[in-house]
UniProtKB/TrEMBL annotation:
GO terms for biological process: gluconeogenesis; glycolytic process. It holds the Pfam family His_Phos_1. It catalyses: (2R)-2-phosphoglycerate = (2R)-3-phosphoglycerate. Pathway: Carbohydrate degradation; glycolysis; pyruvate from D-glyceraldehyde 3-phosphate: step 3/5. This is 2,3-bisphosphoglycerate-dependent phosphoglycerate mutase. InterPro entries: His_Pase_superF_clade-1, His_PPase_superfam, PG/BPGM_mutase_AS, Phosphogly_mut1. Belongs to the phosphoglycerate mutase family. BPG-dependent PGAM subfamily. Catalyzes the interconversion of 2-phosphoglycerate and 3-phosphoglycerate. The keyword Transcription does not apply. Its EC number is 5.4.2.11. Keywords: Gluconeogenesis, Glycolysis, Isomerase. The lineage of its organism: Bacteria, Bacillati, Bacillota, Bacilli, Lactobacillales. Substrate binds at residues 8-15, 21-22, 60, 87-90, 98, 114-115, 183-184. One of its GO terms (molecular function) is phosphoglycerate mutase activity. It comes from Limosilactobacillus gastricus DSM 16045.
């Protein structure tokens, strides 16, 4: 049956600088570009061919998709960009250093913000500088939909409509799909696909640039999950 490949974007400038990123539109680092190209080479080596590509509206994921498709010579496939695949919004933590935050609030609090399923980060309001409500790319969204900060649960709730309306129907139609997105939007999607519990999802990490390949049966049960390391 159909295959689904998930790729977390290659290392970004802010991954490198250890900053909370969320919906900030930061670029790939040099290493991130190399990882994205390596992902494409691995895809080619394994003979993976896609019918559709999905990504977020953030350049680190979009560029990762493009490098991966370029290296595997399938840039021509239909490609869709959606805010539903954005990284989880990190609220008022965006732009702050993770180590500084751990010193200020304690390691445990920062770990809870980063990996708990349902604890929200400190929120941004629509008037705050850096609010996504001021960004033209979200102008067609109901302002009440634009988050001031998200946990994994809320992230999952906005990824699911995309899965149900777009991705699952294509997989059921035996089409192969590639999704280039972010650590937490992909953790959310993996939780749903693999039926991972709220507790166990805290331990699931996505490596930058690493393609994760799912094979499904005709009821969308996972038959196999493989990873192609890129470092
Ligand atoms: O800063 C972020 O947006 C994410 C992904 O890099 O970080 P975390 O490891 O806390 O999920």
């Amino acid at each position: 049956m159909a295959k689904l490949v998930l790729i977390r974007h290659g290392q970004s400038e802010w991954n490198l600088a250890n900053l909370f990123t969320g919906w900030e539109d930061v670029d790939l680092s040099e290493k991130g570009v190399a990882q994205a190209k390596a992902a494409g080479k691995a895809i080619k080596e394994h003979g993976l061919e896609f019918d559709y590509a999905y990504t977020s509206v953030l350049k680190r994921a979009i560029k990762t998709l493009h490098y991966a498709l370029e290296e595997s010579d399938q840039m021509w496939i239909p490609e869709f960009k959606t805010w539903r695949l954005n990284e989880r919004h990190y609220g008022a933590l965006q732009g702050k250093n993770k180590a500084d935050a751990a010193e200020k609030y304690g390691d445990e609090q920062v770990h809870i913000w980063r990996r708990s399923y349902d604890v929200l980060p400190p929120l941004l309001s629509a008037d705050d500088e850096g609010s996504a409500a001021k960004d033209r790319r979200y102008a067609n969204l109901d302002p009440r939909t634009i988050p001031g900060g998200e946990n994994l649960k809320v992230t999952l709730e906005r990824v699911i409509p995309l899965w149900e309306d777009e991705i699952a129907p294509k997989l059921l139609d035996n089409k192969n799909v590639i999704i280039a997105a972010h650590g937490n939007s992909l953790r959310a999607l993996s939780k749903y696909i693999e039926n991972i519990s709220d507790e166990d999802i805290m331990n699931l990490e996505m490596a930058t640039g690493e393609p994760v390949v799912y094979d499904f049966d005709e009821k969308l049960n996972v038959l196999s999950k493989d990873k192609y390391p890129v470092d």
